[in-house]
Amino acid sequence: MNLFTFTAHFDSEEACRNHFKEERDKVGVVCKECGHTEHYWIKSRWSYECKKCRHRTSLRSGTIMQGSNLSFMIWYKTMFLMTATKKGFSSKEIQKQLGMKRYEPVWAMVHKLRKAMGNRDARYTLEGMIEMDEGYFTVESSEVEKSRGKRGRGAAGKSPVSVMAESAQLEDVETGEKTSQCRYFKARVLESHHADEINDTVRESFDEKSIVFTDDSTSYVDISDYVELHFSEKSSEKLTKETLRWVHITISNAKRNFPGNYHKIKGKYLQMYLNEFVYKLNRRYFGEKLFDRLVIAGITGL
Ligand SMILES: [Zn+2]
Q1: CB-CB contact of 160 with 136 (8 Å)
Q2: pLDDT digits (tens, 9 = 90+) for 157-182
Q3: Which residues contact 296 (CB under 8 A, 6 or more apart)?
Q4: Cα–Cα distance measured from residue 150 to residue 194, given in angstroms and rounded to the nearest whole number
Q5: Which residues of 268-302 are buried (b: 16+ CB within 10 A; e: fewer)?
Q6: Whole-angstrom Cα distance, residue 93 to residue 280?
Q7: What domains does the chain contain, in order, with CATH numbers?
Q8: Is the dihedral of CA 201, 206, 209, 210 positive or negative?
C-alpha cells in the first residue's frame, strides 16, 4: 500500500472502521461470555451482539485497539507508516507525522503493534535446517545492569539476543557450487543467558524434526534433546560466513537499523524492536499486502 492508495481507501474514520470490521469478520468473533461464534451486528453501537446470550462485543474489544482512546484513523495511519518502509519509524517520528500533541499514547500504540507482530510470529515454528547464534545489542546500560545484575557473559550495555534462521542449502548440479537461501527468522532476547533459556527457545521455536547449526559455545548443550540433529562447529570465519551466514547477516542488519531509527533502546523494550524487525523481514516479499497483514495481526495478536 502506498500513500495514494492509503488516502484513497481510508479517507474517514468510518472507512477505517468498516475495513477493520470486514477483516474482523473474516477472522471471526468469539463471545467472551459463552464462546458462541455467531453474532448480530449493531451498527449504531459499532458492536457485535451474541446470538445466544446477547452479550455485546465492541469492534475494538479483544483486539489491540481494546482500551485505546485513539481513533481508528490514527491506528490505521500508524499501521500504514509502520509498514510503508523497510526501515521503520520511531514512535517520536510517528507522533510528529500524526501531528499528535502527546507522546505517551503514540508510544503505547506503537508498542502494542510491535507486541502483536511478535505474537503473530510466535504462532509459527521454524523447520528444516536452522542456523542459530547470538548477537549482542547495545541498550541503555542502566536497564541492563538493573535487570540482569552481574550475571551473564554480555558486557554492560549489551543485551544478548538469540537469532534463528531457516536456511536451505542449494547445490548447483552443474557447477557443484553451494548457496544457502533463507526463509523465516526469529529473534529472542535472552534475559539470563542460561542454558535453560536457550533450551526453552529451541523447544518453543523449532519443529522437532529440525536440524540445528550453532557454534560450539557450551550453552547449547541440550539442543539435541529437542530436535532431530544438532551440529556445532568451532567458531571461525568460515562458520560465520557459510554455516551461520543468514543469522550473521540478520544480526548486522538489525544492529545497523536500530541506531539509525531509534535514539536509544531500553533493555526491557529490545524485544519489541526485534519483533518489528523480524516481522517485516519474514514478510519481505509481501509488498503492498503487508499493511492488511498488520491489520489482521492487530485483530488476532492481543
Ligand atoms: Zn454469548
Answers
A1: yes
A2: 889 999 999 998 777 778 877 777 88
A3: 23, 26, 27
A4: 13
A5: bbbbbbbbbbbbbbbbeeeeeebbebbbebbbbbe
A6: 19
A7: 3-122+288-296 (no CATH), 129-265 (3.30.420)
A8: negative
C-alpha 190 – ligand 1 centre gap (Å): 41
Give the span between the Cα atoms of 153 and 198, in whole angstroms.
Answer: 14
Burial class (CB within 10 angstroms; exposed 0-12, middle 13-18, buried 19+) of 125:
middle
HEC string of 222-239? CHHHCCCEEEEECCCHHH
State in Å: Cα 56 to ligand 1 middle. Answer: 8
CA torsion through residues 68, 295, 188, 135, sign: negative
User: Separation of 58 CA from ligand 1 center, angstroms?
Assistant: 13
| Angle (deg, nearest 10), helices 290-300 and 104-122 | 90
Q: Kindly give the distance from the C-alpha atom of residue 38 to the centroid of ligand 1, in angstroms, as a whole number.
A: 8
Per-residue pLDDT, 301: 78
Find the 299 Cα to ligand 1 centroid distance in Å. 19
Q: What is the pLDDT of residues 79-121, one digit of tens each?
A: 999 999 888 899 999 999 999 999 999 999 999 999 999 999 9
- Beta carbons within 8 Å of 41's beta carbon, 6+ residues apart: 21, 47, 48, 49
Distance 49 CA to ligand 1 centre (A): 8
Compute, in angstroms, the gap from residue 29 CA to the centroid of ligand 1: 10
